[in-house]
User: Which sequence fits this backbone?
């Protein structure tokens, strides 16, 4: 049997296993609408430049639109015989409009075509992911606004360090998400360049108009070198990299939620709508949502690595290796989108902070020790000297099973004559937090400013 897809150079058909191996239709069907849009712009350009007649151009555009309708109604389901979405469309078009359908591929290659499709797809998805980031930030901000005066232990090395406003802690994630949102906007600028018209690799002898198709498709500019245009996937790697950073941030928050929910911390209770039980232990309530987010982070990193390695040895220009970009991108988009949605819901309704437990936590540790040193330093004692002195107090207090607030004024004054009765107020947790009013600090005034700034960012 002759091969139905290829030119008459071929005498026999593909081995069926190889046909499956070679085909991308199972997944690149996701590009269908973008392929139609790209092809319509190309067909219009062919008409406008006189490469085909205006009537032919119109027939192509209409036929492509019919395929769009068929697809939306679930009637367009090409199989492996079509190899990929591009061939599937061309075949169906020719069935629909007759021989003129065979003119669509004039002055074009699947190489510039697929590059166009992937960019249109990613441009859309980036916009949607940015909206999901906004919703996530909104959820963080709402929670932060409710918890300005809720205190939470702050950690370094996961050892109690200094107490914080819970809002300050949550706003740290807001800032990360803000960078993610901005970074994706930056990536979008390099996604939004048209490779259409680069041809197979070298351009085309036809008098095409690349500016016309670029403009029709909303691209900001066109690739200046045809070899680069058909083989560049930097934008895909940049996207996978930005997506990986989103996952880093979600995964760090997920990790915190997981231990906050543990019996050891008891900082949050998990809501029923976002947690799961055990098939054997009736008492269990498990934080599956943040665990899945943490777990899925690995596959997004994997896609970034996969794309980098896919590219590193490719000679110019197009190589079939590039077909592998699609599943990596599709899965990255699906995973990041799903994780952003899940974490947003988790923040909105899946966890409740326990202010009493948090207050107790910050009242029962030595996280106010820095403030004792600061107290003396403010009275002129060199900080290092004060620091050493307080270290000694912590040691003796630990041995006596006491906290700093339990020391009598006599004891304070024996340690250093600079201590006065206001030391107790200075080391109360809320005051310890309030005092850190330096720019960007956890002091309540600073946090209120940060909330306002964050709110403005979401509204602008
Ligand atoms: N399915 C192919 C891909 O995803 C389309 C481009 C094929 N081009 C080629 N010269 N084989 O990359």
Assistant:
């Amino acid at each position: 049997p002759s091969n139905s897809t290829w030119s008459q150079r071929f005498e026999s058909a593909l081995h069926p296993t190889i046909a499956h191996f070679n085909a991308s239709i199972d997944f690149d069907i996701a590009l269908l609408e973008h392929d139609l849009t790209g092809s319509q712009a190309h067909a219009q350009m062919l008409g406008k430049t006189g490469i085909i007649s205006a009537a032919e151009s119109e027939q192509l555009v209409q036929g492509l639109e019919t395929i769009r309708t068929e697809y939306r109604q679930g009637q367009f389901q090409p199989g492996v015989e079509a190899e990929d979405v591009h061939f599937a469309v061309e075949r169906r078009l020719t069935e629909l409009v007759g021989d003129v359908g065979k003119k669509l591929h004039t002055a074009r290659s699947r190489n510039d075509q697929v590059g166009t499709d992937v960019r249109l797809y990613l441009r859309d998805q980036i916009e949607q992911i940015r909206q999901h980031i906004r919703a996530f930030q909104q959820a963080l901000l709402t929670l932060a606004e409710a918890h300005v005066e809720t205190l939470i232990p702050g950690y370094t090395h996961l050892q109690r360090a200094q107490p914080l406003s819970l809002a300050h802690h949550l706003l740290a994630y807001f800032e990360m998400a803000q960078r993610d949102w901005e970074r994706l906007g930056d990536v979008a600028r390099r996604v939004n360049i048209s490779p259409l018209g680069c041809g197979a690799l070298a351009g085309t002898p036809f008098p095409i108009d690349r500016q016309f198709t670029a403009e029709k498709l909303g691209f900001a500019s066109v690739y200046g070198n045809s070899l680069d245009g058909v083989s560049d996937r930097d934008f895909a790697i940049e996207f996978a990299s930005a997506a990986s950073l989103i996952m880093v941030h979600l995964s760090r928050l997920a990790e915190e939620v997981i231990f906050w929910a543990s019996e050891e911390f008891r900082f949050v209770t998990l809501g029923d709508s976002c947690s799961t039980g055990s098939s054997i232990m009736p008492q269990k309530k498990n934080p599956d949502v943040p665990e899945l987010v943490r777990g899925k982070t690995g596959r997004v990193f994997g896609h970034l690595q996969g794309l980098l390695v896919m590219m590193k040895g490719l000679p110019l220009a197009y190589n079939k290796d590039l077909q592998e970009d699609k599943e990596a991108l599709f899965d990255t988009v699906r995973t990041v989108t799903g994780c952003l949605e899940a974490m947003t819901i988790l923040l909105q309704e899946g966890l409740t902070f326990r202010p009493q437990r948090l207050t107790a936590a910050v009242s029962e540790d030595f996280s106010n020790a820095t403030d004792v040193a600061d107290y003396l330093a403010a009275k002129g004692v060199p900080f290092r000297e004060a620091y050493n002195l307080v270290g000694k107090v912590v040691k003796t207090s630990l041995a006596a099973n006491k906290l700093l607030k339990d020391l009598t004024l006599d004891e304070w004054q024996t340690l250093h004559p600079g201590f006065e009765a206001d030391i107790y107020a200075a080391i109360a947790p809320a005051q310890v937090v309030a005092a850190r009013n330096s720019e960007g600090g956890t002091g309540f005034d600073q946090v209120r400013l940060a909330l306002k700034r964050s709110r403005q960012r979401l509204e602008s």
Observations:
- The beta strands are 151-156, 159-165, 193-194, 221-222, 268-270, 351-353.
- The chain is about 60% helix and 5% strand.
